[in-house]
Amino acid sequence: MLFPAALSALPLGGWLVLHNYIGYGTFFGGRAYDEMWPLENISLSLTKILHWFLPYAPGVKAVLLRPWSLLLPALLVLAILNRKNRDSWAALGKALRAPYAWPALLSSLVYYFLLAFTVNTIDHRDLTSDRYYIILLPIILIFVLFIWEHLVAPHLEGRRILQALLPAGLLLWFVYPLFDLQEYLRLSLVNGEPSNYNIYNSSQFSELQVLKEGRQLAEAHPEATIYSNYVNLLWFQYKRPIHVLLPVNNNLPAAERAAILREKYSGWPGDEPGYIVWFTPNEYKYLAAPQDLGTIARLELIYQDDHGEIYKVGPK
Fold first, then answer.
1. H/E element, 218
2. Which domain holds residue 142?
3. Cβ contacts of 248 within 8 Å, gap of 6 or more
């Protein structure tokens, strides 16, 4: 068991040591560890996972936002039901150690706790964003089915009333995805794309005035180079190449950031002057802000509102 686990960890482990640690001095890249909230990450992730099975309905959401208030009583009930049945626990343990289960379970546990101790992005705190955790869905389903098979189902044998209620309960549970679907369609008609996975096609961005002002400039000056901190957004909206801004370690003091930019990117943007469409708040923390870029380039502010700024940019 240990040998295949160690063997499967070699590619990722080699990358963490040879690429990340030797190259940059950390296993997981530059991170502000004082901004990490592992306990909050765990609580939020459990809420999201429970939401796969239960809706954010009135009353239910308040419980899901406190996942331990649901999980701990459930564990207590399972422990009480099976307190005298060691065979059930042994069967559950054997099922989890099966060759088709334990590698995925171990990998999922490592992945889960790595996320808990390294994630600090704002989108993680959005309860409707599951992109970090959906990869865990198969192993969670396996785990739930194992618990049902070994710790719950044996107690239903011979109980005809409970067995009759199960199909009714399952049918009622299937109302949940249908309810979610109608809610999604209703919001789509009002707001455009309402999910977090196609946001560049939503009114949240398409109606921003800074985006419209940038489009007018892009159409009026097709030869100009467009830079942005939200490259994918502008590429989707403007249907033309968009250049990413310069990287810098924003944890450093402003004077050090300016010195690094002067050393590495002196003369930027060279023969590619154009416009910077800068969106706020900026989620790409590794990109140099206009204030820093102004130390190595000539920036002229031509538009500003609460959602962003547009600069004309050229070499100094």
1. helix 209-220
2. 2-191
3. 257, 260, 261, 286, 287, 288, 292
Last residue of a domain, one of 191, 216, 236: 191
Tens-binned pLDDT, residue by residue, of the chain (316 aa): 677 777 777 887 788 788 777 776 777 665 555 566 788 889 999 999 999 988 888 888 899 999 999 999 999 999 998 988 888 899 999 999 988 888 888 889 988 998 888 887 776 778 878 888 999 999 999 999 999 999 988 888 777 777 777 788 888 888 878 877 887 788 777 766 666 667 777 777 888 999 999 999 999 999 999 999 999 999 999 999 999 999 999 989 999 999 999 999 999 998 888 999 999 999 888 999 999 999 999 999 999 999 999 999 999 8
The answer to whether position 172 is within a domain reads: yes
Domain co-membership, 56 together with 134: yes
Cα–Cα dist 138/129, whole Å: 18
Q: Is residue 198 part of a domain?
A: no
Domains held by the chain: number: 2
- 106 in the same domain as 138: yes
Prediction pTM value: 0.62
Clarify whether residues 225 and 289 are in a common domain.
yes
Determine the number of helices (DSSP H) and then strands (DSSP E) in the chain. 15, 5
The answer to whether residues 143 and 104 belong to one domain is: yes
Paired tokens of 115: 């996320």
**From CA 292, how far away is CA 306, in angstroms rounded?**
20
Q: Is 295 exposed, middle or buried (0-12, 13-18, 19+ CB in 10 A)?
A: middle
